[in-house]
What does this fold into?
Amino acid sequence: MNRRWIAPPLLALTCSAQTPAISASEAALRKRAEEFLQMQLESKFRQAEALVADESKDDYYNAHKPKIEGFKISKVEFLDGGKRARVITLTKTTVTFAGAPTQQFEIPALSSWKLIDGKWYWYMDRDLLKQTPFGTAKEGEKSNGTPPAFSMPGSAPSIEKLQQGVQISRNIVDLEPGGPAQTVTLINNLPGVAVVKLGYRTVPIPGLVVEPQTVTINGNSKAELKLRAEKGAKLVAEQIVLEVSPLNQNFVIQLKTVEKQ
It folds into this structure.
């Protein structure tokens, strides 16, 4: 669900001057999404629960809810003959980086909706979460978080473009206790600075060392994250969450310890 960089600033998304007629279904979806977003803007997170599908309420509670200062629905894509949809929204937010003036950005964010008993409800699209920058995650592998924001001149971004902002080289890491650190490469394909940090949902894992815990990546650049397991550590199906700012994006990295062969 819903998350902003500095020089060079992002190109603002623009829409066509023409406003095509929309269907009754799209009008209903836009109204519902606007109601949901207005509650997010006003930090009325509990009230917004009424617009969340039952199976996604836990996902909604656990998701990071960034502070937004305005929003505008940019694009709607219908799926499954109009039973599901994806809504691309431009959200305004203010970002402050050390040594730079405060700036406000308009960041695209993607949300998923489904039609239930004639009404639209926000839900966590598991199929979308499996679409990693390296293809569809296989069973047993996990990819989490909303797709990244993306900016391009002249039109709203496509779903494919929303998945290419920041990438990671792998989301499954095997660690040898007391052995060498393993590297995860973070790739920023955007023109401005991105910050990747250990997510707030990550609880301390005994014996796991992550260095650094916050990584700043310049535009169109790469950075590395080092992970290692201390001697005697035993990691079984553990995971860490990486949060990307100013993007509304999370990565989940699955961890386990393996003995040296």
